[in-house]
Amino acid sequence: MELSLKSEYAILAMVELANNTAIDQPLQIRQIAHQQNIPDRYLEQLLATLKRQGLVKSQRGAKGGYVLARNPWEISLLEIIRGIEGYDPISEKSSKSGSESASLAVIREAWELAQKAASNVLDDCTLKDLCDRQRQRQIATTMYYI
């Protein structure tokens, strides 16, 4: 279970959009790319995929860009990963052979439980949760000097 760079960039872009929902203006690709240190061309492809999945909307024109298609608390990390990867990378089932040993069967069962737990955590975690954690971390790391 590892987060791909593609999914990581997509989540970073979505967090940037979520952090700017109060502004109520679309963000341009170059703004998101600069803020999150994502290559422009790659971000363009990711946002196109997220748009096809119904997670973001684009607006054309001089003040155009991208906005979230739904509220930040309605979009889970698992939904973003599934949208970007095209499948659920965590709950992919491995092929079971009928002749596997009891030891291998219990190991496989434990692995499947771990995958299900990870999937549940990602499904319960929303963009709003990430934005809140990000703000708390920024506040905690801010030093005040007198």
Would you give an account of this structure?
With 146 residues, the protein is mainly alpha-helical. It has helices at residues 5-19, 29-36, 40-52, 77-85, 102-124, 127-141, and strands spanning 56-59, 65-68. A two-stranded antiparallel sheet has the order 1-2. α1 packs across α2. The radius of gyration is 19 Å and the shape is globular. The chain starts with a helix and ends in a 5-residue tail after the last helix. 22% of the residues are buried.
Shape: globular
| Poorly predicted parts | none
Write down the secondary-structure element order: HHHEEHHH
* Through-space gap between termini: 45 Å
What's the β-strand tally?
Answer: 2
Could you write a compact summary of the structure shown?
The protein is mainly α and 146 residues long.
